[in-house]
């Protein structure tokens, strides 16, 4: 890789706020939930299941079903996803987000919906 290639890569990483994480490092990310108007929602009340994946196909679940939290912690009203080292091997991470929101319009009173798989701004090196 040429020095101008490295400069271009670094500029793009900074421009797009992409985080590079070593595959041997632990890391955590803050999760925020907002409603359709962009107003913040109380993270302690949101039931969700996020599946993160690297380009090697390694997956990792971060979820809350209303009782049990998996790979996340709520501290002082802030929700963090916790990632231990060695889960991912390399490449840009992607995520599928699944939600369960109370909604009386649905027969069971729950609106289940998900996002398509999308890339996030974390690259494992």
How would you describe what is shown here?
The protein has one helix at residues 3-15, and strands at residues 19-21, 27-31, 47-53, 59-64, 69-70, 72-75, 78-83, 91-102, 110-114, 118-124. The longest helix has 13 residues, at 3-15. The protein is built from 1 helix and 10 strands. The protein is globular, with a radius of gyration of 17 Å. It has 125 residues and is mainly beta. The strands form 2 sheets. Strands 1, 3, 4, 5, 8, 9 and 10 form a 7-stranded mixed sheet that branches. Strands 2-7-6 form a 3-stranded antiparallel sheet, with no helix packed on it. β6 and β7 (78-83) form a beta hairpin. It has one domain (18-124): Immunoglobulin-like. It starts with a helix and ends with a strand. 10% of the residues lie in helices and 46% in strands.
> Which structural category do the helix and sheet elements fall into?
mainly beta
Helix content, binned percent: 10-25%
Would you tell me the overall average pLDDT? Answer: 82
| Domain module tally | 1
Identify the CATH architecture.
Sandwich
Low-confidence runs:
1-15
Q: How can the largest sheet be summarized?
A: 7 strands, mixed
Strand content bin: over 45%
